[in-house]
Design goal:
Helix content: 25-40%
Structural class: alpha/beta
Distance between the termini: 8 Å
Largest sheet: 6 strands, parallel
Strand content: 5-15%
Low-confidence stretches: none
Strand order of the largest sheet: 3-2-1-4-5-6
Order of helices and strands: EHHEHEEHEEH
Number of strands: 6
């Protein structure tokens, strides 16, 4: 059975909407994921915010209440019958516990025991990584392993297969005969 490594933030759940909403409320701005042309969100915020944009990621409750991306749960339910699935993610302060609770609440069929917290996803043994972060996509690709990008403007400079939705990801796996 092949192993899929699935990222959480902006792949499995919608981090950007809630994260940017907090910033937009405090700075009276209109930041959205559609405006990010590179990975560094601090380049797109008001000068007086700068790197403080990342402080919102440390706020208690942020990660616990994120919404799953459309069709993510249903597709994972189908995929987990054919693949060994691990959730691979990075984290800040409260997020470790909150991400574990999120997985327990939304995808109990995978379970919190199958979460791997790491900043070096290319070091995790797996057959395919589904991620959005350019550095993870590039490192996994350079390791000679299969990678699929959740398509965002900020990761378009990485030449890898990309999908715009969970249904497209499922279709990609079927067409590639990855089962």
């Amino acid at each position: 059975m092949k192993t899929l490594l699935i990222d959480m933030d902006s792949v499995l759940c919608d981090l950007m909407t809630d994260w940017h909403k907090r910033y937009n409320e405090d700075y009276n701005d209109n930041l959205s994921v559609d405006r990010l042309l590179c990975w560094d969100s601090a380049k797109y915020v008001k000068k007086e915010c700068g790197n403080k944009i990342y402080d919102y990621l440390d706020e208690e409750g942020l990660f616990l209440h994120l919404k799953p991306l459309p069709n993510a749960i249903e597709v994972l339910e189908r995929l987990h019958k054919h693949f060994n699935i691990f959730i691979v993610t990075t984290s800040h302060t409260y997020a470790y516990t909150e991400k574990e609770l999120w997985v327990r609440n939304h995808i109990p069929f995978i379970g919190a025991k199958k979460i791997i917290f790491t900043h070096e996803k290319n070091q995790v043994k797996g057959d395919l990584l589904f991620d959005d972060a350019p550095h993870n996509l590039e490192a996994f690709k350079n390791a000679g392993r299969e990678v699929v990008a959740m398509d965002y403007l900020y990761n378009r400079n990485i030449d890898v297969p990309r999908v715009k939705s969970w249904l497209e990801f499922e279709d990609f796996l079927q067409k590639k005969a990855f089962y």
